[in-house]
Amino acid sequence: MRIKITFLPVLLLLCYTVAQAQTTATFENIPFPVALNFRNDAASSNGVFASGNVALPNDYNTQFQYWEGWAISKETDNTTPGFNNQYSAITGKGVDNSAKYALCYTYAGTTMRLTGPAKGGVVNGLYVTNSTYAYFSMLEGDAFAKKFGGITGNDPDFFKLTVKKYRNGQIGADSVDFFLADYRSANNANDYIVNDWRFVDLTSLGNADSLVFYLSSSDNGTFGMNTPAYFCADNVITADMPVSVAEAVAAPAFEVAPNPATDVVVLRTEEAGTAAITDVLGRTVAEVLVQPGTNPISCGTWGRGMYTIRFRETARTVLVR
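and the corresponding structure tokens:
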């Protein structure tokens, strides 16, 4: 079963509910050798880059200087196309102008392991964007890959990130999809290639020991995908606690939009009740009486960050900028 990423509910707590702690992996703790702006070799760190409660496996071949899996970067070049600029994010920086971010190179799927209190728990989500290399390859085409949209601009091209989970050695059936580029609309004005950091909600995957990231593209050849198989990630938010469930049952539906929000977020529902809004530390920032229909909620004073809106035993996450 495939699951859309927009406004996804967390699993219901049917046995008991507890306050959640959260940890954000920012990768700012990863040390860099002097004069280097990227690290594609984690051999000195037992083969993983560790930050927060996640571990990013890295495989580096010293003989051929070849790597795959994860790298950590602080490159800022978001204007130079081509493979020689493979370690840059198109944003030229991490989330909230941070210096460092993670970069993934994958064809058959790359894992992100959960560690410490996050293992076996829920990953709230992470931010993703395109690498500069992949961005300009799709925008302009190169020696190996086509320009997205083709000569006429009408080709229904796409570049998609798919996330799944492992739990107790078994890969989950559900997945979360996020389009890093999407030219499938009949209206070319709707075509886009992501060039900023976007939050991907992963709560729908439930309890996990690790996540697996896959890339797919409409541009493929004899040896597989032609689009450069890179994406960038930052600020991975782990809930650090498993959700206890007896069984999944339907909950009253509600939607929140826009997401991200700035001054106002709108809650839409067919039922009445009280919505509680909490920050990443579990502190209540607002409680709002909700009526059936459209309910504007002022969020301009909350401050920038991730917030959870809980309404009648269901929750949604929203980013306030």
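(Above: one complete record from the training split.) DSSP finds one helix and 25 strands in the chain.
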